[in-house]
Amino acid sequence: MKVKKWVALLLAGTMALSAAGCGGTKDTASSSADESRVTETAANAGENSQAAETNAENSNYGGTLKIGLQNAIVHLGYVHTGLGTSEAMILDTCCEHLCRYAEDGTLTPWLCTAYEEDPDNLTLTVHLREGIKFHDGSDFNAEAVVWNWQEWTNAGNIELNCVDNYEIIDDHTVVVHLSEWSNNIATSCLYTAGIMVSAEYAKANGTDALDKNPVGTGAFKFEEWVVDEKIVFKANEDYWIEGLPYLDGIEFAIIPDEAAQISAFQTGEIDVLLNCNSDASRTLKEAGFTPEAKSLISGGMSFMFWFSCQDDGPMGNVDARRAVCSAIDKDAIVNYIKENSGAVIERTAQWGPNDVWSANPDLKGYPYDPEAAREYLKAAGYPDGFDMIIYYGNGGDDEEICSLAQSYLAEVGINAKLELIDSTITNELSGINGESFNGMIFSAGRAEVDLTTYYNRTFLPDGVRWVNQVTHEEDIVELINLATTCKTFEEKEKYCQELSKTVIDDYCELMPLYISSDTIFTHGNLVDHGIYQINAIIWTPESAYLTR
């Protein structure tokens, strides 16, 4: 299969969002390429400018969009440390990527104008858009791009580990030279590590200052962050797309209390509610509001339990983990959520959606079977059960899901204690310094189709996410390397399917529950916002407007 066709199949519908592009080990061999690929964009600034002129005639300028959030915000502007979903979405208000994703999953140039992949010569050439400045007045150019890529790697991320060096051809052309081929390199450079912040601001003020004061190229400039209260942006009058943005400003209101958040929405204090749980969705639907939910092939969120597999207690025993999985009626829990949520929900036993190329049809995922759970307990050496902990966060239906899981576990003798934790503790447990514990944590990640885009960050020894909670089995590492460095789509499909079954069926490292589209409630007057239309992070603040 030609590389062009492979890439089209790979990208279409995948939304490979957290791509870990160079995760393979250095001794992995690579074969010759079929051909190099050139990708250019038709969605340029001129077309956006025409759209702006059309809306200008409709008098859609003005107003401040207020968006309600429950989650506390810890990091904001220093993108290289890795951000939570809400943090990344907020940052998208003022900072932009070299490429965005179209609805069909195609990686589409944004701050760049084109890119060329050459597997034979191990290069990625990136052509940058001219005439753009960061909010501090510094130039967006090749030097700034290379600084962002280097900073990404210096912060401990692994996506660009296969890069040998960066060659700046001129102010608007960069060639990325690789030490080995990676079929995710474009996604890694242009999207995952492709969100651009001002290098000049960071050098002059330090990354701690940048974290509190994001400086990007976007349609809105950061103005104020009142911790645990609000984050405010104002329109960028010098935005590089003429005629945009429409809004005067955007404000994110942090409202942890669910009742207070619903009240603020119903009274019109906020225009948008994000990530409502089932109870909140039901309340708002009964009040006459209609949720906006889109069924996404990918880009939704994958909800699952992560086991602390490196712990010295029961969770370090694969049969104990199998007992936990078999004891919980996952179908019943998901059906409960589906009945009450405004989201589009799909039950899945693997990381990504069920009907995509990486899904393994032979994966079983430990169906509900209490008797099998008891047999696994005996095999693990815990015939009478054991004690464990379930961590969960303050968001969505987390508490209800974990309470249901707790009740099922009790039926086979497993005593699970529930403990609410905030995002700071979640980040610590899932980070590179996270300590193991005797239990599991309920969490969500982007529903990747290309498994290497997330598994690289976790199951490789030099990973950065959940790396101290999972095991790093040799066969898992080998499959990740093969899936990342192969040069045909058929090979990647084969390795990803094997990888899915190995992680879940063989080693029981995690317990997927379901994939959910993200849901928002609006008052019906917010247009062209792009929120949750492609994934949980990307939106289009530059084109959003409020109708009168």
Automatic annotation (TrEMBL):
**Family assignment from sequence similarity:** Belongs to the bacterial solute-binding protein 5 family.
The stretch of residues making up the signal peptide is 1-19
For this entry, the protein name equals Solute-binding protein family 5 domain-containing protein
| GO MF term list | peptide transmembrane transporter activity
| Solute-binding protein family domain boundaries | 107-457
Q: Which GO terms describe its biological process?
A: peptide transport
Give an example GO cellular component term for this record: ATP-binding cassette (ABC) transporter complex
Tell me if Signal is a UniProt keyword of this record: yes
**What UniProt keywords apply to this chain's record, in alphabetical order?**
Signal, Transport
PROSITE patterns (UniProt xref)? PROKAR_LIPOPROTEIN (PS51257)
| Polar residues composition-biased segments | 27-57
Ranges for the region named Disordered are 21-57
Which Gene3D superfamilies would you find in this protein's record? Dipeptide-binding Protein, Domain 3, Periplasmic binding protein-like II
- Xref: PANTHER family: OLIGOPEPTIDE-BINDING PROTEIN APPA, PERIPLASMIC BINDING COMPONENT OF ABC TRANSPORTER
Please give the SUPFAM superfamilies that the UniProt record associates with this protein: Periplasmic binding protein-like II (SSF53850)
